[in-house]
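User: I'm designing a mutation panel for Beta-glucosidase and want to avoid disrupting the core. Could you give me a predicted structure to guide residue selection? Please restate the sequence first so the numbering is unambiguous.

Assistant: Good idea. Sequence first, for numbering, then the predicted structure tokens:
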Amino acid sequence: TTVPASSPLPRFPDGFLWGVSTSAPQIEGAVDEDGRGRSTWDVFAAQAGRIKDGSDARVATDHYHRFREDVALIQELGVGAYRFSVAWPRVVPDGAGAVNGAGLDFYDRLVDALLEAGVAPVPTLFHWDTPQALEEGGGWLRRDTAEHFAAYADAVAARLGDRVECWITLNEPAELTLLGYGLGQHAPGRALLFDALPAAHHLLLGHGLAVQALRARGATGIGIANSHGPTWPASDSAADTAAADLYDLLLNRLFADPLLLGHYPDDGLAALLPGPVADDLATISAPLDWYGINYYQPTRIGAPRPDAAGPTDFAGIALPPELPFAPQKIEGYPRTAFDWPVVPEALTELLLSFRARYGASLPPVLITENGCSYDGIDDTERIAFLDGHLRALHRAIEAGADVRGYFVWSLLDNFEWAEGYAQPFGLVHVDRTTLARTRKASFHWLRGALRL
Ligand code: GBH
């Protein structure tokens, strides 16, 4: 039942916000310019064997120098909003202490260029690039990192707050906790397994303290971008459903319940969290103006099988055998270049399950990321992916989900973390030698779709 990509998309509600997303560490480059401090990703990518293609993000897409060209592309695409991230190490090079005005100047110019192009700036304050100086003291495993983050948020709001009407505190604290502190596949490369959970709490606390800092500066339109996807049990056996429930708890409810319900999803987590958290939960659950969901795919989870040949993997990442759950391949769907299954209906399922679980506690939702990796300029698979997901999103809205906007990940092919440049997610191709931008077929398709 594939809908031909040529049939027009259904109409979205008036005022629906269309956008594209990027992040500083994945596109900016210019890592040594204008007083920027080092980030955990600078250090991680410089370690042998960390990045699959041996690359790093010292140049990335050179957006730092080419942002005017990129803003022109966004304007031409016809979206109303651009989600980018502010690099904490540009603004506070050591993570704590002195603010670097030259670092803020860049975002000042970017915001002005966007407004001039009629595009709303949507900054994310943190997209995983922790200042290395803070990491060396323990990073997000430490409580005071959350306080330093709020001080940095205040400095950004002081500079950009007169022009920004929509703010994102954190991007995907779940992925940083799991991949960065739990499994060591992302910076800072710690493999603490369940001892990573204090990072989750401190990230959530950092979010809450940053919300306070932004509100104190009069900011409105505040949200967060959390990664979510349905968890499908591998079978209805008790062992598989229990494993799937634990995975869902760690990847979905652990990061949504404190924000939306004001408590952690399971009392059993208390032993893994850093001490008494009751007061923090009041900070963490301060009302948001909207809730951001990054959706990529569902995950099928079963109980670990000690007899299984070889390690199970998560997005191509080998998982340690002692974990109490095992991801399994989802069969019967097309797959992206990353080998992720393409399952648009799981986006409908996710949005309706959020509505059911959180009810009136869930503010309006923005899809802050959705997209796919495919090679080539003539990317008909990306068109089919976006077409399918937009129809699935529309079905969720018709069924009552209050979704107010959708952002494609990503504007540009960029540094895809541990994958290096091997997984292109862009609507716009970036040549790795010349850094020239070329609009893909999906760019032209989306531009046409948004004009209807
Ligand atoms: C986002 O994270 C990031 O915010 C962004 O920076 C990044 O470039 C983009 O997505 C693309 O990766 O083994 O099939 O179950 C990624 C979110 C969602 C990726 C869960 C791995 C599990 C894959 N993650 N997914 S699977």
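For picking mutation sites, this is relevant: The first helix runs from residue 24 to 27. The pocket of GBH is lined by residues 23, 171-172, 175, 227, 294, 296-297, 299, 314-315, 327, 340, 369, 409, 416, 425 (CB under 6 Å).
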